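Progress note, project year one: complex with iron/sulfur cluster.
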Amino acid sequence: MEKLIIEKALSNGATDCAIISVKTILEKLTPPILDGYPQKLSYLSNPKRMNINSFFNGAKSILICIYQYWNNEKNYENKLSNISDPYEFLKSKGYRVEFIKSINKKKYRISRYALVDEYHKKIMENLEKTLDDLKLEIKGLDGKIFVDSSPVFEKKLAAIAGLGFQGRNTLLINPEYGSYIFIGGIALSIDAEYIIPQLGEIKCGECNLCERMCPTAALKDYKLLPSKCISFWTTHNNGNDIPPEIINSSSYIFGCDICQEFCPYNTKAKKAERTIF
Ligand code: SF4
Ligand code: SF4
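Model obtained:
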């Protein structure tokens, strides 16, 4: 059954995927460390997030998928130069970016994830198709889809599933495909498990390029301080009351990829054979 589930997810376009049982989640999922997090992110400490059954009552396992959205063959500068008005561009994708009107930068940058198609919608549609396919094949199967805005610790679950590790920049890094990846999945009503074996100790090691290159010193010891992070201020906080030293510290006006741009796992990332982006 695991083979069938994995095959369906891959044939629908996931770059890679795995399945973890709820038993394994209960054994391995650890709560996040949120020292110094602003009130705005306090929802992350809700204990319900630790229990997948709070998300989908009757969950026995989860299928977790990654989708590569950027690789070294895509030309970032080209994509950016095709945008005539960053405010209109981001607004058309549903982002709340009123604050951008007051930023006056001749040269600006936007996170790569915002340059691709609206990802929540696209991943939801992809996983809905996979769930429908599975319902046809496996009698009695039910499920509920999650994306990165759902009350699920998707990065931690993906790491438990063997789809990568959380790097010093706090992001999920897949050893083959890097960190320009979206995560989504389906909580399933059936008991199943297919964890990808970890290939030895592939982690950050002595590298700390992301910490060194972060223009605001927002990274320290595998932790992120949101109050110093350009990405937090320009995306999660909708740019409200953005400190001038944060917006002046780089060219980024929406999101920030600096701690990914220098990561050796991204500079050497393989282009995915499959993805929906
Ligand atoms: S997103 Fe930018 S500001 Fe935030 S930690 Fe990474 S490099 Fe630093
Ligand atoms: S830049 Fe280096 S330290 Fe940072 S996440 Fe990548 S490998 Fe880890």
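The chain has two domains: 2-70+115-202, 76-114+206-265.
Residues 167-169, 173, 204, 207-210, 262-265 surround iron/sulfur cluster (ligand 2) (CB under 6 Å).
No further modelling is planned for this target in the current period.
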